[in-house]
Amino acid sequence: MNVVEMTAPKSSRLESWAIFERVMAQYEVYNSRTHLYSIEDMNSIMKLVDHSGQMAHRVLMDKHDEEVILAAFFYNIRGIITRSKLSVCLRNIACSKQGVLSGMGLSMRVSNMIDSKHEAGRYMELKKGCGRKRKPCGGDLWVYREKPGDVVMTRAEADRFESHTDFPVYLMLRELDDGVDGDGMPSGILSHVRRIAARHIR
């Protein structure tokens, strides 16, 4: 692994940086820890990790700002946390998506972009009008099967979702998550994410 030169976070951010380092370990060395996982879990983690790198690389190439790059890289962090047998938590930090994002000291904007994944999916299903994930269930509501009991957004919910300042980014990330395809971690993306994080972790 190449050594990345960067400015060390200030002491007030050391704990956040330590949590970030534990999270990044899941991305960086997953392929050398196969003995800690079942084959099924290992394949699942590998796909999510590679997918995360591909998303961040695409956003970087499209010249989005650094917070969007971080959001793209950690867009599927929940899946990596829940599938990993290794704790990424420190002290009383909850081993959950919200707990880890908060522990890493990422901005509220980054967290909101990551949290928008599910709502963006509901919105997209509403706008499609039909699709493989839905069937009519009466009125203007449709079953949406991403989570048990989901329904596609109502028009009022869609209006509220569209009012968010980063609404175009929410849709872009979800469409990228659904559409990005490729094998392997893009060269240099992990180092780039580290450099960005060093500037943004609080």
Relevant terms:
mainly alpha, two-stranded antiparallel sheet, 9 helices
Q: What would your notes on this structure say?
A:
It is a single chain. The protein has about 200 residues and is an all-alpha fold. It has a single domain (about 10-200), classed as Hypothetical protein af1432 (Orthogonal Bundle), CATH 1.10.3210. About 55% of the residues lie in helices and about 5% in strands. The protein contains nine helices and two strands. The protein has helices at about 15-30, 40-60, 65-75, 75-85, 95-105, 110-130, 155-160, 165-180, 190-200; strands at about 135, 140-145. A two-stranded antiparallel sheet has the order 1-2. Helix 3 (about 65-75) packs across helix 6, helix 3 (about 65-75) packs across helix 9 and helix 6 (about 110-130) crosses helix 8. It starts with 13 loop residues before the first helix and ends with a helix. Mean pLDDT is about 75; it is low at about 1-10 and about 130-145.
